[in-house]
Write a structure and sequence with these properties.
The protein has 290 residues and is an alpha/beta fold. It folds into 2 domains: 72 residues, Helicase, Ruva Protein, domain 3 (Orthogonal Bundle); 196 residues, 3-Layer(aba) Sandwich (Rossmann fold), CATH 3.40.50.150. It is built from 12 helices and 9 strands. The chain has a 7-stranded mixed β-sheet with strand order 5-4-3-6-7-9-8, sandwiched between helices. A two-stranded antiparallel ribbon has the order 1-2. A hairpin with a 2-residue loop joins strand 1 and strand 2. Helix 1 packs across helix 2, helix 6 packs parallel to helix 7 and helix 11 runs parallel beside helix 12. The termini are far apart. Bound molecules: S-adenosylmethionine (SAM). The site of S-adenosylmethionine (SAM) has 20 residues, from helix 7 and strand 4.
Amino acid sequence: MNEWSIQKLLTWVTEYLTQKGVDSPRLSAELLLSHVLGLKRIELYTQYNKIVVQEQLDRLRDLVKRAGLHEPVVYLVGRTEFYSIEFEVTPDCLIPRPETELLVQRSIEFLRKRTGPQLVCDLCTGCGIIAVAVAKNVPDARVLATDISEPALAAAAKNVEKHKLQERIELRKGDLFEPLVPQLDQFDLIACNPPYVSTAEYEALEKNVKDYEPRIALYAGEDGLDLYRKIVEKVSHFLKPDGSLLLEIGYTQGPAVQGLLEQAGTFAQIRIDKDLQGHDRVVAAQRASG
Ligand SMILES: C[S@@+](CC[C@H](N)C(=O)[O-])C[C@H]1O[C@@H](n2cnc3c(N)ncnc32)[C@H](O)[C@@H]1O
């Protein structure tokens, strides 16, 4: 009988995904196999010679075929890690990107310099990564997270529950600030990773992004700046006098977003931070100086 050990399967799946031009084929093979077998990735190596049963082989074959057609592995396994925290992700949510860890890091740094309870807004929360990562790392923070997509908020709700943060994270549905009340909701920090892809960039997106990730999570008008314009228009109604706005940006958008914030006249200091690749990635706008 033709028996398949974990070792043999890892080699076969890696080779198959390599032939199909899938990114990070070995990692993808490990993620798919550990998902089907219900093992941690490290356990694939501690149980290298284990024989995999037919039912699991059938499930693996189906997932590998879909991955070979460039369906994202994160959607196939339904979860990923961000900021060293595990999140459930559905095809209704953007797949969390490592670049967004900079926005979370800057948010945590800002909040830790302050004393007392902190109220944070995570606009465009998707599956809730920013809200959860901030709340987990800043015990004094309460987070109000909004998104226009009901199914994305359903995934966020699962992640809030998974990390037992229901007491400190509230989810609201609506268009940017629309579900918030200026007289009541005054934030120490507003953090946002909005859609920021332009028309031309959208057309040129890789198949695994364009065909699978939600358009509403990516596309932001002709120049990709639509959401920033809307945020800048309203943000002053929701920020405390010494509050801060942190925005993730596309790497070419720094000067344009800085210009929009300067025109608004609300901010005393505006800074652009670079990610690990040396690209402009986060705009930090501080309301009062100091
Ligand atoms: C780039 S994704 C960010 C998701 C998550 N915060 C992250 O960093 O991975 C943008 C999110 O904005 C939401 N969105 C798009 N337009 C919106 C709007 N007008 N108001 C609120 N949310 C919106 C999308 O549903 C999507 O979840």
